[in-house]
Amino acid sequence: xxxxxxxxxxxxxxxxxxxxxxxxxxxxxxxxxxxxxxxxxxxxxxxxxxxxxxxxxxxxxxxxxxxxxxxxxxxxxxxxxxxxxxxxxxxxxxxxxxxxxxxxxxxxxxxxxxxxxxxxx
Length: 121
Prior knowledge:
Blueprint: H1 3-12, E1 15-19, E2 26-30, H2 36-43, E3 46-50, E4 53-57, H3 60-74, H4 77-90, H5 96-105, H6 109-120
Antiparallel strand pairs: 1-2, 3-4
């Protein structure tokens, strides 16, 4: 990706990617939107390590909400599968009240309720 396209993505608060020409390794960079949920998501990030580099990692709750939002934009079955897997992995540690609150605020409550019902059996 060119620097100009990256600057445009930053200005428009969209996503862009970078690709290492030697390894083919690709990273999607998602620019934080200017809205309450994105600010809360950013504040909740956790420190982590990737290939010896310190990075910030989104919480499972915020990943769930982001994937529900992506799914709502394109009805992606893959995103919903990822949500189910994240819910299962987080188990009882998942802050369901937080997810429900933001799902409602983002217009994702129906999708979250459906996943929650299916999980409970």
